[in-house]
Amino acid sequence: MRNALDKLYLGSAWIAAGFMILLLVMVLLSILGRQFGFHVRGTDAYAGYMMAGAGFFALAHTLKRGEHIRVTLLLQALKPAMKRRLEIFALASAVLLSGLLAWFSVSLAWQSYTIHDISTGNDATPLWIPQISMALGTLILFIAFVDDLISELRGVRKTVATDESLHNE
Asked: Are 20 and 54 in contact (CB under 8 A)?
């Protein structure tokens, strides 16, 4: 199971990287279009869709690598038992919030699909297509938080320690 989850998080990161490459393509296409006098409809909208896809698909992998912003000043001052309780509370809250975000993201994509909602731009893209990246990205983030909560409750959670706080200016 651990191997499958790690592959899911890594695959999500690769998808995010693919979205970043597609974002670059959209921006370059827009620049080249202005320089050489042609226009590709929807490049601005598609660049936005790619940016959102990259952000949402990167969330779980970023969490698992310990790169999300955390306020560790309080945690460092606590005793181990209280620190663990606070970690469990924070992870349970994150599970709840990411679960709600995933639920509403999936619901939004489904609703856009069922009512045939399209973008207001000149590309007229069915909105459920770009909303899928948000729905899947938040669903994978929810899975990552559940994974972390279960690991913390079992006492086997590995946190990635960073020395970033030591690099003050």
From this structure: yes
